[in-house]
Amino acid sequence: SPFLEFSQFAGYQLYGNEEVPAGGIITGIGRISGVECLIVANDATVKGGTYYPITVKKHLRAQEIAMQNHLPCIYLVDSGGANLPRQAEVFPDRDHFGRIFYNQAIMSSQGIPQTEEFKFT
Prior knowledge:
Helix content: 25-40%
CATH architecture: Alpha-Beta Complex
Number of domains: 1
Number of strands: 5
């Protein structure tokens, strides 16, 4: 079925010689069993799926779109967590990494369905 990917060029040449294609995370709207859903999927082939500052920004934007349009969210998690060399840029304030979990709580209170699938290796 069709999939509308968001921010395909996020992270392009943002970190000098470090390649972070699509910000290391795929986000977009897809249709599952006829229902439009917001999908957020870590790309483990990009630095082990770790979160760069642009990854966080892209994830938060996807959640914002889901909240604005009351779209169910599916999170496909295959991530090593924060990118350690850049952790100081990932955690610093309320609009960074912790905001992802805050948004999940807000969406839950608004009745927006969410599910997470984790890959453990």
